[in-house]
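Request: Have a read of the protein record below and say how the chain folds.
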Amino acid sequence: MTTNSVITIGRQFGSGGHVVGEKLAERLGIPYYDKNLLAEASKDSGICEEMFEDHDEKPTRSLLFSLVTGMQLRGDASAMYMDMPLNHKIFLAQFDAIRRIASEGPCVIVGRCADYVLRDKKEAVSVFVKADMESRKQRAIDLHGVSPDKAEEYVRRADKQRASYYNYYATSTWGDVNNYDLCVDTGKIGIDGAVDLLAEYIRLREKYRK
């Protein structure tokens, strides 16, 4: 299957969104970006990669972003950018890296407000991956070594961090159905089922898109 879509994946912690994105990219034969996006942003901006890792999907409240991200879309934010705190520069460097990567062709991008960053791109397909709490707790136990009695707290805390990051920088609501083209529940259809569903959705979307 070939595609001209750029697929962005938001995800609840423990839902398997990372694996879904990785397998979908492999199925479609297109590049996949998750943590490696940080290296791309570091290369483009000259800010060391460790700084991106320290601030990765961690929230900072700032009313500046509704203004500055709009200016970034118009390409006139350079003077303001120079005077920003480091954490603001890091977010906008990721913003620029996402837009640059998307301009180069089809790909899958996980997290980092990519659906918001690419909201004006007609080729973008925004997806949100979710699952029931029991499935997510088990993934936290199996993959992150969390003790069973702490698993739910761990999952909820990770979700809260992702939601805070998205809500601050994207100026909209993480997990809101209105932000996404499709929501997939891996707790009900599994990872492979989610990949099958997304691949078919993308095929149909490209076939019938006007």
Notes: Residues 61-81 have pLDDT under 50 and may be disordered.
